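Standup notes
- DV: blocked on the single-chain target, sequence here:
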Amino acid sequence: MKFSAIKDVLSGNYSIREATKKFNISDKSVLTSWISKNTCREELKPTRKGKGLSSMNKGK
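- DV (later): unblocked, structure below
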């Protein structure tokens, strides 16, 4: 389940919110954390349209 949810989001087929509902994950932050840990990215945020993910740029 965990890797299927990650794959669905990274492939662009589902947004984090959609995958969270599809796989009955308690919160979208849980899925975001899984993706970060399994893709060696430090932190992720949703894109403007809420679909897929983008890497965070340097902060202020």
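- Follow-up: The CA atoms of residues 11 and 32 lie 14 Å apart.
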